[in-house]
Amino acid sequence: MSLQLFTDYPSWFWLLCILCGALYAAALYYSERKINSALSSNVAKAGLAAARTTAVTIIAFLLLNPYLKSQKNETYKPIVIIVQDNSSSIKQNLADSAAYINSIQNLRNELEENYEVTAYTFGDNLNDEFNISFSDKSTDLSSALTEKSERFIAAEVVREKIMKNYRQEIPYSVEVNVDEYKDRGELIKIRAIIFVARQTQKSIIIGNKGEAIKKIGIEARKDLESFTGKKIFLELFVKVKENWKDDANKLRELGYD
């Protein structure tokens, strides 16, 4: 069995399956004392008990697995996007710009308790560091969104597929960064990197012989082709950045403030 098989189910489920196997083996042992007495070797008795326990554990797993999946109800935080005009004209209309910036930051912090928050400022360009300074000379939201929206949508589609296909602890330990997005007319080439915090998470996302990440890529590619109306060439890579959520420099590399 692969590591992913064990991590996909809670420990109580495995303990229940093993307990069923052990109880069944014990029941057979005491109900078949004549057979057991014929087995003079303690090793033979232990081997028979182990075989019975293993067999019933597997049967219990196969029987209970559909029920467990039907009862599984995972919830994920909704995504909220904050976009703030960073042009100097906004500051002119504010009585206290510092108080306004502080209120926006407080709002973001409050939302992050219940939502996945992504924040941007826009002016001359779209900036995903959310550094509000009201220093940009112009307000050009349409061109800024055109520049960034394709990459953002591609990253969110990949992340959505990860949230759908893996257990709850994986999505919140992962981030997707699209470092290449080339529109070549009828074909769009996308290269995305999936960042995780630990090597074990990387192994889970890749899966046995790459089957898991292949499934993510196929599902994301279909959605992106439906959205863009073009053929998509999607490359996915998984990299480990240990404790990236707690490292300010790594957060900035990934586009967070």
How large a portion of the residues is in β-strands, by DSSP E?
15-25%
* Total domain count: 3
Separate helix tally: 10
Instruction: Write the H/E string, N to C.
Output: HHHHEHHEEHEEHHEH
Mean pLDDT: 75
Termini separation: 41 Å
Could you tell me the radius of gyration in angstroms? 27 Å
Q: What is the CATH level 1 assignment of the largest domain?
A: Alpha Beta
Helix content: 40-55%
Please identify, by name, the CATH architecture of the largest domain. 2-Layer Sandwich
Give the number of DSSP strands: 6
Q: Are there runs of 5+ residues with pLDDT below 50, and where?
A: 1-7, 248-257
Order of strands, main sheet, comes to 1-2-3
Class by SSE composition: alpha/beta
Q: Could you describe the largest sheet, including whether it forms a barrel?
A: 3 strands, mixed
The name of the CATH topology of the largest domain is GMP Synthetase, Chain A, domain 3
Note the overall shape: elongated
